[in-house]
Amino acid sequence: MPDCIFCKIAAGEIPSNKAYEDDDVLAFHDVNPQAPVHLLIIPKAHVAAGAAEITSENSALVGHCFEVAAKLAKELHLEGFRIVTNNGAAAGQTVPHLHFHLLAGRDLTLHLG
Ligand code: 5GP
Ligand code: ZN
Asked: Could you give the C-alpha distances from 32 to 22, 37, 39, 61, 92, in angstroms and in order?
């Protein structure tokens, strides 16, 4: 998708600090971290703007993103973590390319946001 920041990051046109990459999924460190560990996990392809566009056509990639989250949590020895996805501007979404935030390293017990 032209002018999509995350498509450009997936293509290597914008640099990122990568934590994991395979043919279909990329995980990289958020440029403005909200926790000591704040990774973004994205399908490389622009299959959906957000969670509202998840369908049977692209949901395997969603599962793949969660597999990567579990793998990273294990590798990074995360004791607890949160996976968040914002859908739509009203929920605070700023980049309309499906992505999952993986947050850890601070007390996450009392907040849902
Ligand atoms: P959203 O607000 O859409 O749920 O999440 C978008 C996230 O992408 C934000 O946490 C923001 O800090 C991050 N972000 C935006 N632009 C870039 C960028 O160019 N590089 C990286 N690494 N993160 C970005
Ligand atoms: Zn995109």
From this structure: 24, 11, 10, 25, 14
pLDDT at 108: 84
Tell me how far apart the alpha carbons of residues 20 and 14 are, in angstroms, rounded to a whole number: 16
Instruction: Looking at the CA of residue 95, tell me the nearest atom of ligand 1.
Output: 3
CA 5 – ligand 1 centroid, Å: 9
Domains and CATH numbers, the chain: 5-104 (3.30.428.10)
- Provide the whole-model pTM: 0.96
Find the residues whose C-beta lies inside 6 A of ligand 1. 5, 14, 16, 28-32, 40, 86, 92-95
Amino acid sitting at position 35: A
- pLDDT per position as a tens digit, 69-79: 999 999 999 99
Instruction: Give the closest ligand to the alpha carbon of residue 49.
Output: 2
Which one-letter amino acid corresponds to residue 84?
A: V
* CA pair distance 71, 86, nearest whole angstrom: 22
